[in-house]
Amino acid sequence: MLRPIRGQRWDYLDQLRAILMLAGIPYHAGLVYGSHAAWIVASPDHSEVFTWLLQFSHTFRMPAFFLLAGLFGMLLVRRRGSGAWWRDRLRRLGLPLATSLALVSPLLVLAGAVAQGGPENAVPGLLQAMRNPGADWTVHLWFLIYLLLYVSLLAGLWQLRGSLRLEQGLAAFQDAVERRPAWGGLALLGLGAATLVVAAAGKLLNASYLLGGIFIPAEFFANGLVFLCGALLAYRPTWLEAFTRPRWSIWAVALGAAALMAVCQEGEGDASRAATYFLMPIVGILFSHLLLSGARRWLDRSTPLSKAMVEGAMTIYLVHVVFVLWLSVAFLKIPLPPLLEILIIVTLSAVLSCGFHRLIRRSPPLMLLFNGVWPAPRWKEAAPPSQTVSGTLS
To answer: Is the full-model pTM beyond 0.90?
Structure first.
């Protein structure tokens, strides 16, 4: 059985969350060399191998993160109440977002400007981006924006009373699926169909991309469904227990569906886009089962390395793109094989990002700005894990 919720930390979930965030380093480095689309910095040399790996990992990495966020969000809402949890999330997510928009995003825009027009284009490019803000300012920060919105929606829905109570709806759905298990599979297909409808409506209304590409309604809807799935799992412990036990047949389906979605993402026709949107929540949920059950089987222990990963994951994620982009700019004029360049960029970016975290962790104000937390005194850091509750994912 799963360990008790109260007073217990689930190491494998914390580690999985950190791994999903740290995997952003090779993902963003690979985008520089991807052949499927030009990024902020685009190398003239492409790696087909990395392009396919990017497409494959993109199908499940962030959806799995959102499922974890919904899972821990529900656990903490039921324990603390929605109001206290929402205020805590505003601090834990809003402060790092604001800090990154002010300090990290300009460096990303400058890197793109230099890559496109040389050093002399740095200031003009930055000024142009400031006049027309768009996705260049939220390159990797979009997930914080989405997460803040999901958190607010969950907290608001939890406040509803009467027949609209979220608790009542979750319980009714779970009871129905337990009586007729086939309804679970039909519900999963329904999530894909609903996402496809939202995507089609966005196209008809010319609203597929909003706020300069920062907000993508269909993607927001699909990831929101996965977030809700995480909350659903946390609402009934038996469901969470079942979801985190490996089922090899579902693993096979998850791998096949993710591969199919990766292929569809490369297509440019309406059929490929429709298949991609249909598969978004389905792959997100199925592959989350694969990742959570695999992590529970092989990562359910705490080590010095895992503790360091969990502690530094947020800071490293926020700043790593700066190092990735500027190192990529430096390699634009260096004729090395793409895979070698990617390896060097990933390694140096990881080392420099870790170094940045170790630097700011010495300053409580900086930890508050980049992590949304005021670090505990050193003597409290030695407290055993059983005295804490994992809430870093919500």
So the answer is: yes
